[in-house]
Sequence to fold (200 residues):
Amino acid sequence: MKILNLYAGIGGNRKLWGEHHEVTALEFDPRVAAVYSDLFPNDRVVVADAHDYLLHHYADYDFIWSSPPCPSHSQMRKNMSVGIMGAKPLFPDMKLYEEIIFLQHYFKGYWVVENVKPYYEFLIQPSFTLGRHPYWSNFMVEAKHYEADGIKAVGAASKIAERFGYDLDNYNLPDKRKALRNAVNPEMGLHILRTVEGLL
Fold:
């Protein structure tokens, strides 16, 4: 398959995919993209706006994975803006729903959009849930339990890195814990890819 991996980060979802497919990864932060390139040297890495790239290149791929930024939707970030943390309130970033609607109506291949459970009622009901995260897609995935899912909720960066097999010690990232927390559980990423492979 030709796979488009949007908002790729350090490649949590992609970590266990192997080298059987042609993967193009989009990451806006060049420092994070450099880590991804080191970890997955056979992938094509594009440093650009993933939302814009999707609009212009979606038809070139067989499977699209999108993990748009989640802070503006999360209960944790909302709590920070109304509590003692003093964070400013954010408008929900509607690119999440723009991409879901766009893929539903324009893309002919398989697709999945991953995000967090929002602090508001879902505007579009997810197709399935794995661990703590909702997924929107045009295929169904068998439910699975992931014992390590809670690590990302409360664990230190070192615990997340150890559980998911990442060593970021030699990389100059401004917030390694954030990069690790943003990474999709690699086992979930593999489970979803295997489901798509079984549909072909």
